[in-house]
Amino acid sequence: MGRTLAEKVWDDHVVRHAEGEPDLLYIDLHLLHEVTSPQAFDGLRKSGRTVRRTDLTIATEDHNTPTIDIDKPIADPVSRTQLETLRKNCADFGVRLHPLGDTEQGVVHVVGPQLGLTQPGMTVVCGDSHTSTHGAFGALAFGIGTSQVEHVLATQTLPMAPFRTMAITVRGELPADVTAKDIILAIIARIGTGGGQGYVIEYRGEAIEKLSMEARMTICNMSIEAGARAGMIAPDETTFAYLKDRPHAPQGADWDAAVAYWKTLRTDEDAVFDHEVVLDAAELAPFVTWGTNPGQGAPLSAAVPDPASFEDPSARLAAEKALEYMGLSAGTPLRQIAVDTVFVGSCTNGRIEDLRNAAAVLRGRRVADGVRMLVVPGSVRVALQAVDEGLDTVFKEAGAEWRHAGCSMCLGMNPDQLKPGERSASTSNRNFEGRQGKGGRTHLVSPQVAAATAVLGHLASPADLSDAAVATPAGV
Amino acid sequence: MEAFTTHTGRAVPLRRSNVDTDQIIPAHWLKKVTRDGFEDGLFEAWRKDPEFVLNRPERQGATVLVAGPDFGTGSSREHAVWALQNYGFKAVISSRFADIFRGNSLKNGLLTVVLPQPVVDGLWALTEADAELAVTVDLVARKVTAGQGERRVEAPFELDENARWRLLEGLDDISLTLRHEDDIAAYEGGRPAFKPRTLAG
After folding, report:
1. Cβ–Cβ of A412/B99 closer than 8 Å?
2. Which SS3 state, helix, strand or coil, does residue B32 take?
3. How far apart are CA A63 and CA A84, in angstroms?
4. What is the CATH number of domain B6-190?
5. For the Aconitase A/isopropylmalate dehydratase small subunit swivel domain, which residue ranges apply (chain B) (predicted)?
6. Does residue A470 fall inside a structural domain?
7. Torsion sign across C-alpha atoms A297, A203, A124, A103
8. Shared domain check, A249 and A301
């Protein structure tokens, strides 16, 4: 019987297989950041162990880093200690680090791909659930806990229990105003936050194949919000073109050998998935969340649902609690929800195409009075590219704040936070209670919806702008 | 890791689904560089409400958390497991756990037990009616027991044999893996040259 893409990558990394034991998998790339690594390095020290493969390991600073005044000492002493701890650990153990202020610094899941370190057929891990992002290249990439970080540092392997396979096929052609973010939000609303549990999802179908690499990363990024172990997309010419000539892409004969291998990384015709889901692209629309988990979403044209409409008692209770927390009433049209803050950034939507798409909507327009808009590029490289294209000027002229690279308001570990009761439209990945700041209320949206929302002051899509002459989105 | 064989303790019924790791331990707690001292951050936002179940005097000292489905979703932060353990929990029962949280819990000796939702409903009813009721989570016999008479709950649970063995013995994964260092070296010898490296040379 044929094998799926995920099974092929898995099989190519089995170091040891024994009945009744988890497979021991080799890890091709280990990404580190300041939050989930200190206790792992501490563990290595206590047991007198070293990092087995510093040449397959790379670190950056992202979760805690400020996005203003980055040339000044970090105000929060605890944040500062954590960054200093990472610097010391990387120096002591010989790990390459891109610290705050470095040209290659940025959100770890933006940095790996832009350096060309993320390639098809690799196993990629990081102590961060959004490691699933790298699956866009046809890599098997998953988030791990700190004990596993220590395990990978010490052994470059992980014992892994087998997974199940799920195909999510998006058939046909996307409507012009529908983005990758809308696709993945619609998928999560359909299968639920636990729907992918135990699965590696492969996204396929015409609508997926037409997406740019960056849009594919947005989709795979939020696989974890569907509960999946990982998300993958088979590598193709789009993937190869993105990788060609990146700093760590193979060169010369190695490139040819790599591409020959990468071309084998497709699910066989006769492979069988454990579960299949099919969506019609034509039925998709701009999508936003109304609740406090990423599965609580609806098309922008809908209204806040009535909890009583949920058959499942735990879903009904969750909806009641969500509406209470979000300060929303059933039946309110989503377009009438006013926001205080708009956040464009994160490992979900902080890449150059995302900034282009937001800027295209904002060009020649103004952020509404009383609305604060933060634009936080995913990496220093993304920021430099944006400046090169004049996007920073578009944002600033519209009245938005143009910030330095980092995770920022996605999780509010740095000073970029919502105040209690404040409401945001955010291009990030989680609308959990308090995620963006204690008492903060988050609506997950695409960069285009974020920008239109900033202009109108309430949830909106670019089509709602009266002078809706907006360029076709790049990449979608 | 501390071994887990069997544990008996009082329970905290937590009637919520989708308890994500941001709720279990908010991000601002993640700046610590140790594995301890997270107990005060556990469910921090909800604990501001004096009526929150964890704040009730009769729940003090409870060690078994009985939660709704999709517990531990979201961020991979192992701090969520440490916070539950630092607070004193030895086991968590739910009808469904997020994968990463489950993996983290079993690596730290916090037993996460999957039981069907009707059984969880039964445990909620029992432990809400009687805060003193003891719940036993027995990894040797692979079953959860609580209560007596008609309302007694006795439910078997599954856990893969390898994970169970490691918990029962309190074994450290890294030591186990390093027994196979020859296999790792052999695999490394056959890796293709085109695979990227982060360091030159």
Report:
1. no
2. coil
3. 13
4. 3.20.19.10
5. 1-117
6. no
7. negative
8. no
- pLDDT per position in chain A (476 positions), as tens? 899 999 999 999 999 999 999 999 999 999 999 999 999 999 999 999 999 999 999 999 999 999 999 888 888 899 999 999 999 999 999 999 999 999 999 999 999 999 999 999 999 999 999 999 999 999 999 999 999 999 999 999 999 988 999 999 999 999 999 999 999 999 999 999 999 999 999 999 999 999 999 999 999 999 999 999 999 999 999 999 999 999 999 999 999 999 999 999 999 999 999 999 999 999 999 999 999 999 999 999 999 999 999 999 889 999 999 999 999 999 999 999 999 999 999 999 999 999 999 999 999 999 999 999 999 999 999 999 999 999 999 999 999 999 999 999 999 999 999 999 999 999 999 999 999 999 999 999 999 999 999 999 999 999 999 765 544 556 65
CATH at A137: 3.30.499.10
Stated pTM of the model: 0.95
Strands A164-171 and A29-32: unpaired
Query: Is A98 within a domain?
Result: yes
What is the DSSP secondary structure assignment for residue A250, as one 8-state letter?
Answer: -
| Exposed e or buried b per residue across A427-439, where buried means at least 16 C-beta atoms within 10 angstroms of its C-beta | bbbbbbbbbbbbe
Q: Is residue A370 in a domain?
A: yes
Q: Binding site membership of A for [4Fe-4S] cluster: which residues?
A: 347, 407, 410
Same domain? For A63 and A192 the reply is yes
Q: State whether residue B31 sits within 8 Å of chain A by CB.
A: yes
Give the pLDDT confidence of A18-69 residue by residue, as tens digits.
999 999 999 999 999 999 999 999 999 999 999 999 999 999 999 999 999 9
Please provide the size of chain B in residues.
201
| Chain B interface includes A201 (CB < 8 A) | no
Same domain, residue pair A204 and A341: no
Q: Are residues A331 and A401 in the same domain?
A: yes
ipTM: 0.94
Q: Domain tally for chain A?
A: 2
Q: Is there a single domain that holds both residue A322 and residue A432?
A: yes
Residues A87, A234 within the same domain? yes
Q: Which of A215, A240, A275 is the last residue of a domain?
A: A275
User: Which of B96, B161, B183 faces A194 most closely, judged by CB atoms?
Assistant: B96
Among the three residues A217, A247, A275, which one is the final residue of a domain in this structure? A275
Range of the domain at A303: 291-464
Q: How far apart are the first and last CA of chain A?
A: 35
List of residues 6+ apart from A149 with CB closer than 8 A: A30, A32, A36, A37, A40, A127
Say if A150 is an interface residue toward chain B (CB within 8 Å): yes
Angle at B133 between CA B131 and CA B134, to 5 degrees: 130
Residue A346 domain flag: yes
Residue A106, SS3?
strand
CB A366 within 8 A of CB A420: no
Residues of B (126-145) whose Cβ lies below 8 Å from A: none
- Do A397 and A261 fall into the same domain? no
* CA gap A239, B34 in Å, rounded: 40
- What single string gives the DSSP state of each residue in A414-472? SS--PPTT-EEEESSS---TTTTSTT-EEEE--HHHHHHHHHHSBS--GGGSTT---PP
Instruction: Tell me, yes or no, whether A141 and A30 share the same domain.
Output: yes
Interface test with chain A among B75, B86, B171, by most A beta carbons within 10 Å: B75
Distance between CA atoms of residues A235 and A107, nearest Å: 23
Inform me whether the C-beta atom of residue B17 falls under 8 Å from chain A C-beta atoms: yes
CB interface of A with B, residues 262-301, below 8 Å:
292-293, 295
